[in-house]
C-alpha cells in the first residue's frame, strides 16, 4: 500500500500542477498572444481567428484564439488547476441575457488581438486597446461584480506591445518619434496599467516580455525587412521595451507595497528554442505552418489560397504572427517552473504558491 501511495505521489509530482495553489482566479490583459476570443464578439473588428483551421489541434474548432490550440494564458490556468477563463465579452453577454447569474469566479480574459499598449495601435481594426480592457475590469470591480477579496488573491497577467512595435515599421506610417522615445511612451502606458490594477486590489502581478517580434514570418510584408534572418532593427526595439518592462517589475515591491511582481523573459526563452530547435521537437523555426508566400508570412492562415503544414506542432510559428501550441506550451512550462534566466525574481509556480497575507 505504501509503495502504491509513493508511486501515486511521484506521478503527481511529474505534473506541472498540484492541487492547492493560492490563486482562485486569473485576470488576463493583452493582445493575440492571450486573446481567448474577445474579438469574435466585436462586430466591426477585422482582427479575427474565428474560422478554420484555427483551433484545429486541440479544441478541434475555432475559438477565436490565434493559434492551433491553447495559448500561454490557457496553459498557466491549467497548471494552477483552474478552468480556462472566458473572454470578457462572452461573460458579459451571458450575464446580460441571464444564462449566467454572475461573472466567472475563476477570472476573466480581457485580451484583444491586434491591440497594443498605445491606444492608437490598430484602432482602425476595431480592437480593444489596453486602456479599455482596464476600464472593463475597473467597472466590474467598482460595481461589485467581482469580489475584492478574490482580486487580492488572483493572478494578473499582461503581455502587450508587439503590435505597437511591428506597426512602427509599417511603410505607410511615418513615425513622429524616434524608436527610443516611442518605447518610452509605450512604457508610460504600462506604468498606468500597473497603477490601475494595484489601486483595484491586484497583488500578484506577472508581466511578460515580448518575444522576438522581428522574427515573425509577417516581416515578409514589410519593405526592407530581411527574410533570410530576423529583422534586427525591430528586435532591438523589442529588447529596449523588454528592459524597461523588467525595470518596472523590479520596482513593484517598492512602489506598490504588498504586491509581488514577476518578469517573464519570453524573448530569451524563444531565442533558445530557435537556437536548438531539434532539442525541442521543431523541424522549422522560420516559416509559418499556415499561410502563403515568402515564409508563409504574406497571407493570414485560413484566408483564400492558404497552405498548411501536416505537422503544426513541429513549427515554431503557426501563422504569420503567432506561435504554435507546442511553442506556447514550452514557453508556459519555462514561465511556470523555470529558473531565473527565464522568469524572475521567482517563477509562476512559486508566485501561485505564495500566501499573500504574509508578504
Automatic annotation (TrEMBL):
<dbReference type="Pfam" id="PF00657">
    <property type="entry name" value="Lipase_GDSL"/>
</dbReference>
<dbReference type="GO" id="GO:0016042">
    <property type="term" value="P:lipid catabolic process"/>
</dbReference>
<dbReference type="InterPro" id="IPR051058">
    <property type="entry name" value="GDSL_Est/Lipase"/>
</dbReference>
<protein>
    <recommendedName>
        <fullName>GDSL esterase/lipase 6</fullName>
    </recommendedName>
</protein>
<dbReference type="InterPro" id="IPR001087">
    <property type="entry name" value="GDSL"/>
</dbReference>
<comment type="similarity">
    <text>Belongs to the 'GDSL' lipolytic enzyme family.</text>
</comment>
<keyword id="KW-0378">Hydrolase</keyword>
<dbReference type="GO" id="GO:0016788">
    <property type="term" value="F:hydrolase activity, acting on ester bonds"/>
</dbReference>
<dbReference type="InterPro" id="IPR035669">
    <property type="entry name" value="SGNH_plant_lipase-like"/>
</dbReference>
<feature type="signal peptide">
    <location>
        <begin position="1"/>
        <end position="20"/>
    </location>
</feature>
<keyword id="KW-0442">Lipid degradation</keyword>
<keyword id="KW-0732">Signal</keyword>
<keyword id="KW-0443">Lipid metabolism</keyword>
<dbReference type="InterPro" id="IPR036514">
    <property type="entry name" value="SGNH_hydro_sf"/>
</dbReference>
Amino acid at each position: 500500500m505504501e509503495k502504491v501511495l509513493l508511486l501515486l505521489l511521484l506521478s503527481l509530482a511529474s505534473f506541472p500542477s498540484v492541487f492547492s495553489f493560492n490563486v482562485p482566479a486569473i485576470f488576463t490583459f493583452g493582445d493575440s498572444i492571450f486573446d481567448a476570443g474577445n474579438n469574435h464578439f466585436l462586430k466591426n473588428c477585422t482582427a479575427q481567428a474565428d474560422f478554420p483551421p484555427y483551433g484545429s489541434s486541440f479544441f478541434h474548432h475555432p475559438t477565436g484564439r490565434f493559434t492551433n490550440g491553447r495559448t500561454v494564458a490557457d496553459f498557466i490556468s491549467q497548471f494552477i488547476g483552474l478552468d480556462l477563463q472566458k473572454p470578457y465579452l462572452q461573460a458579459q453577454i451571458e450575464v446580460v441575457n441571464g444564462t449566467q447569474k454572475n461573472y466567472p469566479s475563476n477570472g476573466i480574459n480581457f485580451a484583444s488581438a491586434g491591440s497594443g499598449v498605445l491606444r492608437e495601435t490598430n484602432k482602425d481594426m476595431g480592437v480593444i486597446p489596453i486602456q479599455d480592457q482596464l476600464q472593463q475590469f475597473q467597472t466590474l470591480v467598482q460595481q461589485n461584480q467581482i469580489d475584492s477579496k478574490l482580486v487580492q488573491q488572483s493572478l494578473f497577467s499582461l503581455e502587450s506591445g508587439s503590435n505597437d512595435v511591428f506597426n512602427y515599421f509599417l511603410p505607410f506610417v511615418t513615425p513622429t518619434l524616434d524608436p527610443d522615445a516611442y518605447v518610452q511612451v509605450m512604457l508610460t502606458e504600462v506604468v498606468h496599467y500597473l497603477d490601475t490594477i494595484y489601486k483595484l486590489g491586484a497583488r500578484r502581478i506577472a508581466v511578460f516580455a515580448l518575444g522576438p517580434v522581428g522574427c515573425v514570418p509577417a516581416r515578409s510584408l514589410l519593405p526592407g525587412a530581411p527574410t533570410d534572418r530576423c529583422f534586427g532593427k525591430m528586435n532591438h526595439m523589442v529588447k529596449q521595451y523588454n528592459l524597461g518592462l523588467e525595470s518596472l517589475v523590479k520596482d513593484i515591491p517598492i512602489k506598490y507595497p504588498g504586491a509581488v511582481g514577476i518578469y517573464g523573459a519570453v524573448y530569451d526563452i524563444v531565442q533558445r528554442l530557435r537556437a536548438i530547435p531539434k532539442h525541442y521537437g521543431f523541424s522549422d523555426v522560420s516559416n509559418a505552418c499556415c499561410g502563403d508566400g515568402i515564409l508563409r508570412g504574406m497571407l493570414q492562415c485560413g484566408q483564400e489560397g492558404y497552405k498548411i503544414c501536416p505537422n503544426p506542432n513541429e513549427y515554431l510559428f503557426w501563422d504569420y504572427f503567432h506561435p504554435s501550441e507546442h511553442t506556447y506550451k514550452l514557453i508556459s512550462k519555462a514561465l511556470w517552473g523555470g529558473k531565473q534566466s527565464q522568469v524572475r525574481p521567482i517563477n509562476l509556480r512559486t508566485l501561485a504558491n505564495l500566501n499573500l497575507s504574509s508578504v
